Each structure stands twice: as C-alpha cells, then as structure tokens.
Amino acid sequence: MSENRFDLIVIGGGPGGYVAAIRAAQLGLRVACIDKRGVPGGTCLNVGCIPSKALLQSSHHYEHAAEEFAKHGIQTGSLDMDTAAMMARKDKVVMDLTKGIEFLFNKNGVAYFKGAGELIAPDQVMVTLLEGDEQLLTGSNVLIATGSDVATLPGLEIDEQRIVSSTGALSLDRVPTSLAVIGGGVIGLELGSVWRRLGADVTVVEFLDTLLPGMDQDIRKQMQRSMKKQGMKLKLSTKVTAAVANADGVQLTLESVETGAVETLLADIVLVAVGRRPYTSGLGLQQVGVALDKHGFIDVDEHFKTNINGIYAVGDVIGGAMLAHKAEEEGVALAEHLAGKPGHVNYAAIPGIVYTSPEVASVGRTEDGLKQDGVAYNAGKFPFSANARARCNGETEGFVKILADATSDRVLGVHIVGPNAGDLIAEAVMAIEVGASAEDIARTCHAHPSMGEALKEAAMAVDGRAIHI
Fold first, then answer.
1. Tens digit of each residue's pLDDT (9 = 90 or more) over 237-292
2. Is 446 noted as a catalytic residue in this protein?
3. What are the CA-CA distances from residue 42 to residues 17, 39, 279, 316 (Å)?
4. Strand residue runs (E) in 122-183
5. Does residue 358 have a cis bond before it (omega within 30 degrees)?
6. Where in the chain is the domain with CATH 3.50.50.60?
7. Which of 61, 303, 344, 448 does the annotation list as catalytic?
8. Model confidence pLDDT, tens digit, residues 202-219
C-alpha cells in the first residue's frame, strides 16, 4: 500500500475530525487527519470551549475570594490580579490537551498532516503543508470536519483590538473598563461573565426579547434574573445599527426593535457573539460537486454522506447544534459506519450547557415546544434552595425541572439551572437515551447529601410527591 493512500482522510482536526480519525484507526482503518491550525483540537480546544472554561474557573476563584470567602470565615485581605498569569494558565491548559491529542494520534497510528487540505477529486486531497510543501493524499473515503467560523453583523468589523470575536475576548491583556456584548447566547454570557467577575462593566445587547433563545422558558427567566442580580446590564429587543471605533473605545448606535428609539452606547471593548457559520471555503467542494444548502451547510444523509460517493461530513459544517460533543458523536458514528458497524446518533439526547454561574444544562424537549406540538405532559420542579448539599455549599440559586409524557411518564426533557448543572445533566441524558420514566429516576437511590438529589426530587414532583418541598 502506498504511503499516501488511506481508507479515510479527515480534513479538520477539531472534535468531530480527530475523534473520527482515532475511532476509525481503532477499527483497523488506515487514517490520515489534516489540520491547518498546526495544533489539533479545532476551535473548541484552541479558541473556544477549553480556554473559556479555564478563564471561567480563574474568574470564579477571584470573585469568590472577593465576595464569598468571608462568609466561610476565611479572611483574605486585599486582592490583586495578574491577568498575564491567568492567561498563561489558560494557554498551558490548551497546550497540554493539544499535546494529548497528538499523543493519541501516534498511539493509534493516525497520520497527522499540519496544513490545509483541498479536494481535487472525490478521492484525492492536496495538502499544502505549513512549511510550504505540497503532498497528495488518496483515500477511499474523505471526511469534511472543518467546523465553523465566527459570524458577524453588517457594520461590525472585527479587528480583535476594539471589536473582538470570542477568540479576541479570550486573549485580552487587560480587564476592559466596559464591555459591550452583542448577543445574549451561550458565548456572550460566558465571556461576559469572565470579564464582569474581573471588574468590567458589562452590557449585553440582544436582538430578541430574551437571553438564551431556544432554551426552556423557565431557564430564560431565571438567567435574566441571575445576570441582572450579578450586575450585567441587559438591553433586550435591541439591534446594533452602527459601530465607530477610535482610540477611546467603540461607540455603538442601538435601536429598539419594538419602538425604533435610538440610543448610543460607548464601550471600551465590543464582543461580537452573534453565532457561527459553517467553514467551507478553500476545501474544493465546488469543484468536486459537493452540495450545500441555502445556509451554506453541507447536505448529508443519515449516514453523513454527501451527494458525492465517498465524501462525508460531520460537526458544525452540517448544521444542527454547534456543539463539540455532538460533533464527536457524529465522528464516531461515521467511523463505525465505514467499518461496517451500526453507528448512530440520537439527536434527542444531546445536552446543551452554559458554564455561567449558576450553570445551565438542558436536554430534550422544552415546555414551549411541547405546548406548540400539543403533547400532553407533566412537569416536576425542585429548587436548589431545598437541597442540603447546595445549602452547605452556599449555592442555592436555581432549580431542576423534568418534563414527562402525561401517559407513559417517559422523560421528554430536563432543564437545570444551578450548581454543577453541566455534570448533573448526564443522568438526564442517560434517562432519555434509554427511554426511562420519571418514576425510574424517582425510585433510583441518590447519595445524601448530594446535588443529584435535586434531580430525584424533581422526578418525584412529576407525580406530586416530592419530599422536601
């Protein structure tokens, strides 16, 4: 077999791509993975999920030292902050994890090419290596896993100095005096939380009338209360019509969606967090005939195959929830399908998490969606203020809410606002995956005292028999 002939060539080394490559290699396929960043892990690991969580953790410690330690009898005196050290810690977390992926490539025999891959035929990929050379790879199958890129708005030109994307917001060399966040979704609230905790005056501007659009109604209401309580200013139903940057900051022109009233907002830094768009440029898709939909996503069937035999796509580039773990599941399913195994993704059991404080986690159907579809359901809700472990930890904000089918009691959706929500949701995901009922959760013994008891009590509340409320 030629050195440059593979069973699978993966273009993109993010969560969907590198996981697909490793799983395919585990199943005995000869695999190549191409990534032009020069380090694997994609947006998530390098300039997304991982660095943002590192900064969220650092800023969380800082705020707790300033505001919470005294309640526990811990006297810290005056606090100081070293932004450079905080950024260096974040960078080390990222570097250690990228090295880990390269180790896994070597361990599993994945050929790793650092460069840009372009399809020149359905079974041929030309790699322009970072050092400038070109290398032609031939593969029985090609997987496009190039992810997504930052979306922006007309008139908001991102310069990563005054007007920044999420990438720029993860690498600021100082705490801005004021930060305007355009977009009240996950990225905007997480990065807004980081810099608010460290001292920035944060204003969130959202076109819709709610934060976290698409999430359950009770989560949206709770998070708006929580963010306001923490000092974030919220301008909902507001659009940005102009932005002028100068040496002193950025002047935004805002317009009310409801009344048309115009106002200006001056910010030291503006973060544009209005979503992401599929990354498909420079891949040679057009010249080999790969079809895109009207929004620029790659069209695929239930096995992630494009309209061209032998070419597949997974992750952000095919649309749906733009989440690293969704891309990973698709990458594994595709690899297993190519190896003759029954790969499958249950899209009803993909959790979504917001790593603010309190955390938010959801899986399955929302109450709004069930009402719209005329599905009869029962709801059970339990507050963390009645949970013993939450009381011990001083983290009592939020609740667990379970939605179950009115006839079968099958769990349809679970929504959590509160401490450790991102970890607690795993039990709910499992419940939906196996078709469990609310009663199954209610009758499962949960350790005491633990945050997980809130999930058990919410399940009991579906049947009107919660104990501690």
1. 999 999 999 888 999 999 999 999 999 999 999 999 999 999 999 999 999 999 99
2. no
3. 9, 8, 12, 11
4. 124-129, 134-144, 148-150, 163-164, 178-182
5. yes
6. 5-150+277-345, 163-274
7. 448
8. 999 999 999 999 999 999
